[in-house]
Amino acid sequence: MKRLITIISYISLCALCIQSHAQFSVNNPQGYIKLTDQQYNLDALILLNGIDGNTTIDYTGSESIEWRYTIGGENFNSSQKEIIPETDMLYSIYVDGVAKYHIYTIDYTQYLSQLNSIEVIEGKNQCSQISLNIEASIPEIKYLDRTNATRTLAREFTLSYDNALWQDSAWTTVTTDTTLIINSSLLTPNSSFSIPAPYKSTTFRFYGDKWAEQLNIASDTIMTNYTAIAVKCYPRGTVVEREYKNEKDRSSDTDIKGSGPLVVEFESRANPLDIIYYEWFISNVETPNNYQRYNDTDLRYTFEKTGEYKVKLIVTSNTCEYTDSLNVRVTESYIEAPNAFTPNGDGINDEWRVAYKSIERYQCIIQNRWGRTVFKSTDPGKGWDGTIGGRPAAEGTYYYVIVAYGTDKFPETHRKAGQQTKYKLSGDINLFR
Question: What pLDDT, on a 0 to 100 scale, did the predictor assign at position 14?
C-alpha cells in the first residue's frame, strides 16, 4: 500500500521542555511549542500544555530589561529576568527602553477541540464528487502580533482514507492523507467540504489537531464507513499471436490490428467495487447499429472479417456509469508463394511457406513433374519441408496450386466487387540442397 500526502504545511516548531531562542527560554514541565515563523509577526508564539507555578519564561541576556504587558486595560511591568506567564498575553521585552522582543503566550488546554461525527453526503454529482459533513467544536484561537493587530491561529486536522488509483497500468491502493487548515472562516458547528469520489470502499478518518498532538494532548478521532459507487475502467485489447512466422501483421504494440481472423483478448480493468456490471458492444464502424453484446468481465473475441471495428465497454455500479472504447482493425488479405527453397538443414529457407495475412480458407497441393502429390495442406501457416514419405525429395522442379479466400471482399473497382476475395495461385518450386 502506498501513502499519498495531498496537502502539506511546514511550520517551524519546538516541543522541548527547555529551549533557547534569542535572549529568552521557556520552561514548562508539561511541554510547549514555540512558533517562530515570520508569518506570526512575533518573536515567538508560545503554546503551553497548561500553566502552573513551574511554568516560566526567562530572559537569558545580561542587560537590564523590562517586561511590559496589559491586563484588563491596566498596564504592568516587571524588571525580573523570570516571569510566570498568563494565558492569552502579549509580552514585550524592553532593553534600554526599546521594545526588542514580542512574545504571545497561550494555554492550549483552554482551546481543545471536540470532534463529534463525520458523515458522507452524496449529492447530484456523487459519481465524481462527494461531500463530508463534520460536526465538531473547534474553539477559535486569537492572538496579538507585535503591532497589536488581532490574528487567528490556524489549526491543522487530517482526513485519511484509502483509495484506488490507476498507476503503472494497474489499480493500486493508496492511503490519502489530506491536511485541512481550520481557521476562522471554517469555524462552524457543521463544516462540509468536497473531495473526489473514491474508487474503492473505504473508511474516512478525521483526527487532530496537530498542535494538541505535538503537546501530547489526547485528541479525538471520528470515522465513518463508505461504500464506493464511482466507476472507471481502462480497457485494453491484446492480439493473440499465432505461432506461424510466415503470417504478416500478426500483432501491433501500439494498435489493436492484425491479420484475420484476428483473435483479441479484452480486459476491462475496472476499479475494485463490491458490485459492478459490464457491457461490451462490438460493431463494425460501417454498421454501428448492428452490434454484438456481452456481459463478461473480460472477453476473448475473434474478428472474422477485414474491416474497422469499435469495441465499447460500459461499466456500471448500482448508481454510476463509465464508458470507454477501443478501435480494432483487421487488415486486408494477401498471399504470395516463393519459387525456391533449400531444405539442407542450415536453418535458412528450409521450408517452402507462403507469406500471407487475413486468409480465411486455404488449400494447397504440391506435385512432382509426373503429377504425383507430394504435399497438401489446408493451413497457410504450415509449409513443405522437402520430404516425401519422410525421405528427402530429389532436387528439381515441383509445381503448386493454391486456392485461398480472404477475410475481405473485392474492392469496388474489381469486376467481382462485393464478393469474397478469392486467390488462385500456381507456379514452379525449385528445390535445391
Answer: 41
The edge-to-edge listing of strands for the beta sheet with 420-431 is: 340-341, 420-431, 396-409, 359-367, 373-377
d(CA 115, CA 97): 47
pTM of the model as a whole: 0.80
What 3-state DSSP class applies to 124?
coil
Identify the bridge partners of residue 266 per DSSP, sorted by sequence position: 237, 299
Confidence at 251, pLDDT banded by 50, 70, 90: low
Residues 6+ apart with CB under 8 A from 138: 113, 114, 155, 182, 187, 209
DSSP string of 227-270?
------B--EEEE---S-TTBSS---SSSEEESSSEEEEEE--B
Which residues 6+ apart lie within 8 Å of 211 measured at CB?
Answer: 33, 47, 108, 155, 156
C-beta of residue 430 within 8 angstroms of C-beta of residue 353: no
Strands (E), 36-73: 44-48, 56-59, 65-71
Amino acid residing at 119: E
Q: Where are the alpha helices (DSSP H) in 149-307?
A: 210-214
Query: Is the bond into 177 cis (omega within 30 degrees of 0)?
Result: no
Provide the 3-class DSSP secondary structure of residue 32: strand
Residues 6+ apart with CB under 8 A from 343: 350, 351, 385, 386, 387, 392, 393, 431, 433
3-state SS assignment for residue 62: coil
**Distance between start and end Cα atoms, the chain:** 62
Q: Which residues 6+ apart lie within 8 Å of 39 measured at CB?
A: none
Helix (H) or strand (E) holding 14: none
Q: Which residues touch 261 (CB under 8 Å, ≥6 apart)?
A: 302, 303, 304, 330, 360, 407
What the block records as the C-alpha cell of 146 is 507585535
The per-residue DSSP string of 75-125 comes to EEEE--SEE-PPSSEEEEEEETTEEEEEEEEEEGGGG--EEEEEEEE--TT
Q: With CA atoms as reference, report the closest residue to 410 among 425, 401, 423.
A: 423
DSSP assignments along 166-178, one per residue: EETTEEEEEEEEE
Please confirm whether the linkage preceding 261 is cis (ω < 30° from 0): yes
More confident residue, 200 or 11: 200
What count of residues does the chain have?
433
